[in-house]
Amino acid sequence: MTLSLDILPLSAWMPVGALPFIIAGPCSAESEKQVLDTAKQLAKIPQVRVFRAGLWKPRTRPSTFEGVGSKGLQWLKKVKAETGLMTTVEVANPEHVKQAIDSGIDILWLGARTVVNPFSVQEIAQSLKGTNIPVMVKNPLNPDLRVWIGALERINQAGIKKLIAVHRGFSFFTMGPFRNTPMWEIPIELKRLSPNLPIIVDPSHICGKTHLIPAVAQKALDLEMNGLMIESHIKPSEALTDPDQQLTPEELNSMIASLVIREEYGNVEFENKLEELRSEIDKLDEEMISILSRRMYIVEEMGRFKKENNITILQLKRWSQIIRGRVEAGINLGLSREFLLKLLEALHEESIQRQAEVMNRKDQPPTSIS
Ligand code: PEP
Ligand code: MN
Prior knowledge:
This protein has helices spanning 10-13, 32-42, 71-83, 94-102, 112-115, 118-128, 145-157, 185-193, 203-207, 213-222, 249-258, 268-308, 316-332, 337-360; strands spanning 22-25, 48-52, 86-90, 107-110, 135-138, 163-167, 199-201, 227-231. By secondary structure, it is α/β, with parallel strands linked by helices. The chain folds into 2 domains: 10-258, TIM Barrel (Alpha-Beta Barrel), CATH 3.20.20; 283-360, Up-down Bundle (Chorismate Mutase Domain, subunit A).
């Protein structure tokens, strides 16, 4: 997969300030007082640079609070005038875009429920043409990097160069500890494909519970993500949406203070040691790949042998023994059960595939070990 976005680095349009870069504010704007009280507290935290509040809320069920709508735009104007914070709101259609821009909102964001729908994203992109407003694109609800990339491309192709991707986790049927599973490999792959694209992490929607937020925020920084979007409410227990995942401004302040900002590069001694460790890893990976290749060679041998003797490929008893034995051995060597199961599953799938190929082959020239 390739990705080429014509974007500006965050530093080209976001004035530098205390790190990490934080966007904070309530899940929803509820009243002028709640918005302004929260914003005034947040403005005292040097890292908070942008104030967020949802005005048009995408709710799972009807007849729940669906946001205050356009009237909240005036409250955000006041936030900007009274605190100097930049403001951002979620937009889900061209009308929201127009109203937000007309009211002087600084940054727009597309929510996870909008990003899943290319028609909506395209309509919004169309309405952004000719504007120069920064746009944040949250990941879609489902863990499909291509859908996320597609939305970023549509917005970028509308001429928006001030672009940020927001990682807010992915929705799954089975619940783990998180409300939305982080699947860090997805934002990491996005960063690999487009190193200039700023990615900020939304620990509030990943976690769903405040006590999980600090670890996820730290992990985001350790993975060199460019900032955090965190929900903060003056009185979280009374919040009309997402009450369990919002921090008070004070809690947010101490959470930020506890975060460790690590350096990307260290001193010479550190770099040398790191190089040494990296070359050890390279060597081990080489060995591992050669071992896997040898394993597959033997697997094919077995396939041929089974074919000659008219035996089925899948032998469940043997497979259960492998799982049990290997997992136990791996755990004794300090590997996790989850990792071992994933690894063995992948090996098994590839082995079955190889054997099936051998079985279906008409003539079978022996494969050589390279
Ligand atoms: C939000 O930021 O309040 C929101 C609705 O988030 P998401 O689109 O990530 O669910
Ligand atoms: Mn929310």
